Amino acid sequence: SFTMDTYLFVYDLMQFCGHSWIFTNMIIRFMSFGKDSLADTFYSIGLVMRLCQLLSILEILHILIGIDKSRLFPRFLQIAERIIVLFVVINSQEEVQGKYVVCVLFFLWNLLDVVRYTYNMLARMGIYYLPLTWLNFSLCIPLYPLSVLAKAFAICVSLPYFESFGTYSIKLPFPFAFSIYFPYVLKTYLLVLFIGMCFIIPNLFSERKAHLRTGNIKKKRS
């Protein structure tokens, strides 16, 4: 148990450092260069962002082996959404990387994650600061739908480029006569994205209710 708690604390610390660096970098660049900083957000912080999102796949493993008590399906959906949008949509189309929506999306993701990993680190040490608990489980309720809208907008912006360049579209030769037109796949995924949001939002409310009740109980006991 001590070994697992130590491992999870180190994992949360690594994610906190990565997302804090991204978030601080974005703010400093915006304060220094204004709107000019938005267009090259991906080029400045994209590598660290990709590393952090790849590392987050471990959270699914944590749930599967039982060291994290979070619900698997909602967490899987949230991680999968980010991986797909970041690596399939944004990373594969250089023209999309300079769009302002990428900056908005990264800002929302990192704001949520800086708070979440701060809360997780303190929780590993048995520290439950009620205002931080409230912020962690309340901030995601308005920001998650906004991030879904930003993801959807990023996909819509990318569609003309996938249509022009044929990226990921596959056409097999005779006798298979089978083809996959990737813009249709993305349009279908837009529907999946909003269906997933309808599933995740009630889960966010239930988590908020459960953790705030637990936080109040622990505060009274202390």
Automatic annotation (TrEMBL):
GO MF annotation: an example: very-long-chain (3R)-3-hydroxyacyl-CoA dehydratase activity
Cellular localization per UniProt: Endoplasmic reticulum membrane; Membrane
The protein's annotated pathway: Lipid metabolism; fatty acid biosynthesis
GO cellular component terms, A-Z: endoplasmic reticulum membrane
Catalytic activity line of the entry: a very-long-chain (3R)-3-hydroxyacyl-CoA = a very-long-chain (2E)-enoyl-CoA + H2O; (3R)-hydroxyhexadecanoyl-CoA = (2E)-hexadecenoyl-CoA + H2O
Domain of life: Eukaryota
EC number(s) recorded for this UniProt protein: 4.2.1.134
Entry keyword annotation includes Transmembrane helix: yes
Transmembrane segments: 7-30, 42-65, 127-160, 180-205
Keywords, sorted A to Z: Endoplasmic reticulum, Fatty acid biosynthesis, Fatty acid metabolism, Lipid biosynthesis, Lipid metabolism, Lyase, Membrane, Transmembrane, Transmembrane helix
Keyword check for Acetylation: no
UniProt topology in membrane: Multi-pass membrane protein
A biological-process GO annotation: very long-chain fatty acid biosynthetic process
UniProt family annotation: Belongs to the very long-chain fatty acids dehydratase HACD family.
Function: Catalyzes the third of the four reactions of the long-chain fatty acids elongation cycle. This endoplasmic reticulum-bound enzymatic process, allows the addition of two carbons to the chain of long- and very long-chain fatty acids/VLCFAs per cycle. This enzyme catalyzes the dehydration of the 3-hydroxyacyl-CoA intermediate into trans-2,3-enoyl-CoA, within each cycle of fatty acid elongation. Thereby, it participates to the production of VLCFAs of different chain lengths that are involved in multiple biological processes as precursors of membrane lipids and lipid mediators.
Protein name: Very-long-chain (3R)-3-hydroxyacyl-CoA dehydratase
Taxonomic source organism: Corythaixoides concolor (Grey go-away-bird)
Lineage, top ranks: Eukaryota, Metazoa, Chordata, Craniata, Vertebrata
